Amino acid sequence: MIAKSLSGKELKRLSSVLNERITSLLWLFGFSSAQWLKNTNREPGALITQHSLMLRILLDRPELSPIPKVPSVKLVYALLCEIDPSITHHTMSTLVGLSAKSTARIFAGGNPTSTVGHMLLLIKTELERLSTTEEKLAFYSYLQENVKAEAQGRGYDPNRVWKGVGWSVKAK
Question: Fewer Cβ neighbours under 10 Å: the N or C end of the chain?
């Protein structure tokens, strides 16, 4: 049996096979949005060889995907609770820049944006890498200071953002 040439349709199919957003595939293939559009419309045999080879591997063996899996909000929340048992859903969401409405949605199982998902991955990775409670507390303090710096930079009251309203228009 002779193998068939791949077309841009397989790029679209890969998104569902890997259960990944197109933004993750843009990263994987090094595409801009315009390049994605151009490549997904290519005829059979018109894809760059590197892209075809990657597609063949990942369509056949999706478990080899190098795209890191975004952890659940609940998992990251549990890791933060180990450091600070008094942390709330609202406080954790403030760490990643979410509003109160978004907090309720993601804790109910909604999907975070790509950026929030990557921040969750970053926080999880660092908390799992650090070995001592002191190191984890220092990282948690760093995250809190990051929130305060962003609040100040936006002209918000850092204490209101952190302890009260989070990222809302009432934070000024």
Answer: N
